Amino acid sequence: MRIDVWSDVSCPWCYISKRTFERALASFGRPGTEVVAHPYQIDGERPAEPMPMLEWLGGKYGQERARAMSEEVTAAGRGHGITFRNEQGFAANTLHAHRLLWWTGREHGHGVRSHLEELVFAAYFTDAADISDPAVLADRAAAAGVDGRAAREFLRSGEGTEEVRRAVRSARDRGIGAVPAYRFSGGERFEGAQTDPRVFQAALSRESEESTA
Q1: How far is CA 149 from CA 37, 42, 55, 146, in A?
Q2: DSSP states of 126-159 as a string?
Q3: Model-level pTM greater than 0.85?
Q4: What pLDDT digit, counting tens, does each position of 107-116 carry?
């Protein structure tokens, strides 16, 4: 069974849904499930420079709606062990973060990549860190067990830039219009926030039954 996942590290519902999905996957307890992660950029490569998160969201949706959105994800996050501090955070270009995740997955596999993604999410939403800063990203890579020096050298190289951009274009071409998005090899699809692991558990069971029928 293969499950393709599209996610953006600036998306709070992607963070929550990742926790939901991984809880379901852990309880499923059957080997042979391949998870393939893909980058997505909700706002493209904007903002050009880091800016206060709620100010950025207010410019997109209006201040009142931005505040309500922040309160909604903050409340939802508590049930998934996530502390959102959006009022202190900074919106930032996610290109370097996606490059680092691409490289980490290639060099170290999905498990390490997933761990690093968790740390980048926490940097963005909990720790008010600038995830467009290569130094911040290299520190997170080191915390995930990746050689920090190698991560810094990679980020300086520019490698992975076109690969990430191509992957984001490909996602849009495939009809991915919102994230998180989950597509199962058997045809099941989920797009948007997922907060109940039972949704994924049921899909995993159906896919498993169909693959062994």
Answers
A1: 24, 29, 34, 9
A2: TS---TT-HHHHHHHHHHTTS-HHHHHHHHHHTT
A3: yes
A4: 999 999 999 9
